[in-house]
Amino acid sequence: MLVIEDLEVELAGKKILKHIDLEIKPGETHILFGPNGSGKTSLLMTIMGYPQYKVTGGKIFFKGVDITHLPINERAKLGIGMAYQRPPTIHGVKTHQMVKICGGDREINVHELARKVNFQDFLDRDVNAGFSGGEIKRSELLQLMAQDPDLMLFDEPESGVDMENIALVSQTIARLLQKECAPTDIKSMLQVKRERTKMGLIITHTGYILEYLTADKGQVLYDGVLSCSDNPREILHCISEMGYEECVRCTIASN
Ligand SMILES: Nc1ncnc2c1ncn2[C@@H]1O[C@H](COP(=O)(O)OP(=O)(O)OP(=O)(O)O)[C@@H](O)[C@H]1O
Hints:
The protein has nine helices and twelve strands. The protein has one domain (2-254): Rossmann fold (3-Layer(aba) Sandwich), CATH 3.40.50.300. Helix content is 35%, strand content 27%. The protein is of the alpha/beta class. Residues 11-12, 14, 16, 34, 36-42 line the site of adenosine-5'-triphosphate. This is Iron-regulated ABC transporter ATPase subunit SufC. GO terms for molecular function: ATP binding; ATP hydrolysis activity.
């Protein structure tokens, strides 16, 4: 379980996250909406542990461990992974080598994994070197598939992805988050749901991903404040009909 309590974060001397409370239980996937510059990426980067995101208040717990000041590699070891919006190019490291590194001690069949995201032809290229926007997203997914963490943070996984590949990307995320499992003759839907352990936090502007996976909760981040919590489809509808400010108004009214 991920628990964030009253989190305050500064970036380059500016307060960018204020009084954030968030809880993601095992098996749950949350969607994070919010206008440009509201702090969504900053929240994910803070959970992942990037030191430039300075925690000035509050705590982050994962699996019962206080990770507020743990370095990134320790968080990754505990089972947190992230697919970045704009990951860096890494010259001198081939994509297949990176996938192996992400797999750690696990026995990884890189080609077999790459086939699942149609990425076999890119394995011999340097990581992200000259990759298109959509190719970067698939590369990020491939690395996450190799790591197979318990908490997965996705920063706009559909942005820059063509319509055909949106299905591939979204279905891969659904599979990673154990959302694709269906009831069988011997297992009811309730049992299938209870057996899910993976946690997800997904940033999206378009909500395309909601066509492919059922998310448990939607949240709106507005000017560094988590301002609404509701069914993600309801939130998306509200944003597209009335704009983000209406979400903020909802929260003020409910408080
Ligand atoms: N290195 C930096 N120095 C100063 N301010 C920064 C830096 N990086 C980000 N910011 C600012 O922090 C704020 C939050 O940025 P963040 O990337 O978290 O927003 P976001 O909600 O993810 O936006 P988007 O939807 O456009 O991706 C923005 O105002 C941004 O300009």
